[in-house]
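WP5 quarterly update. Target: Beta-carotene 15,15'-monooxygenase. Source organism: Amycolatopsis vastitatis. Length: 190 aa.
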Amino acid sequence: MIAPTNVTAALVLSPLLPGRPRVQGSAAGWVSAGCYLVAVAGANWASSYHVLVAGPLVIPLGACVAGAVFTARDVVHEALGAVGVFAAIAAGTVLSVAVAAPRIAVASATAFLLSELADSWLYRRWQPCGQAAAIGGSNLGGLVVDSVVFVPCAFGSLALLPGQLAGKALTTLAAVAVAIGVARRQGVRS
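Structure tokens (predicted):
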């Protein structure tokens, strides 16, 4: 995965900054939607074919991308509003079915739809507490829903649940750190 440059991070995360007006169809909104769909495809492809072993944890590699999926969804929500985010969720659900192995696709589409709806709802509830809280709180709630639905459906047991939760939690923390860093560089309290 290529690390984003500061310019890319600023463009993609700029809709999350307080005081930025939401512009339907803005460049940042469309870039964010594209990043969201790429992250969805990457997470599902990686879950189908790769695992990471970290001591006792076996982590489907897609779990390490999932935090980026939730954060990108938050950015799309800010940039394109409720209609835009629900269109992106629908497109992401269809994309999940298209890029993954059949067992992963069914589990992913189901978990994806439920977790993204939960994440979206939580994001709006956490927004009054600041962007870092909104991203962190909604992502953590979404990753729990996603993992609890996805792991048993995709792998037939809960054995991979600890690794799934760990991978998603770490990427969520990284995403929150990037959002805070971008906000601080632009002189905005997060």
